[in-house]
Amino acid sequence: MGRGPQNASAPSGTGGFAIYFDGTSSRRRLVTLEFNGRLEINEYERTLAAWSYADIRRADSPSGTLRVTCLSAPALARLEIRDVPVAEQLILRCTQLDDNIPGRRGIARIVGWSLAATVSIVAVVLFGVPLAADRLTPLVPQAFERRLGDVAEAQVKTLFGGKVCDNAAGQAAFTKLVTAIRESAGLDTSIQSRVLASPVPNAFALPGGKVYLFDGLLAKAGNADEIAGVLAHEMGHLRHRDGTRNLIYNGGTSFLIGLLFGDITGSSALIFASRSLVTASYSREAEQSADMFSIDVMHRLGRSPKPMGELLFRVTGKESDNGLSILSSHPLTQDRLARMSSEDRPPNGAPLLTAEEWASLKAICHSNN
Length: 369
Ligand SMILES: [Zn+2]
Prior knowledge:
This protein is of the alpha+beta class. It contains 14 helices and eleven strands.
């Protein structure tokens, strides 16, 4: 007793059994809970996680079960407690347990959104999914997209492997490049940009403002404009919410119904959905408008969009496409190349990176300083 001084009426100690999902695999673990300074989640003798009581939030659950998540844990991590005394002990300690239960305005928004979604689901039945995807996409809440982005981030790491390269000079150069493009693109979300040490030539922008560049694409790039054009193209997809539209289209009716009833949160459907966010290819129209977006952004920065076409053309080179490169999700057609070349203009803006910054970015996965 006495190791958990947070609440005099709630002494520390073993709290009993619960079911735990770590949020990265679908494995269901039987764990014991210990109420110490933090909530310790133990499997046999091993502590799997320790959650701060202040970060623990109640999640939707069937009656008779207390289901909680933790703000500082992976988005899908959760605990399920069926033992009433154990649940009561936990509730006693979690002072902000119900903080994210939506207030009146939140509920009104959800109801409004659900009504709009219902109308659109009728459209699925009447007109088929493609039209409904177009109608539904603008209605999907930003918060939901951010959540998708969080889960998709784990998918990116699983599918493509490679760890995050965190050499400071390279990261500073990458952040500078991404910020310049984002500001010129008029995207107001805060951006998290990372380079992954994966040999796959690819780049991603995920909902919620996560931008990934893979070392494999960086290795093939000859200058900052080539990478900038690709990143601007990805942000075009974000701006047009093409990923979300794809999700609705590919996930079809079951995804829509899950979305409508809020069943998506914490379910494996979200993992499935985020996978398609990372691997599904975009339509010809989506590619064209992302290209137009990129061309526009590059012109505004006083740079040419042509280098992007040259980089993509180089990626098609000798290596056979293993299905994960940027070209599998963004098919490069003759007319795309032709458009980028025809929009070529001599640069009249400052270089996006200095020669030194570009060298640091190129070396981000191969240098320790
Ligand atoms: Zn694209």
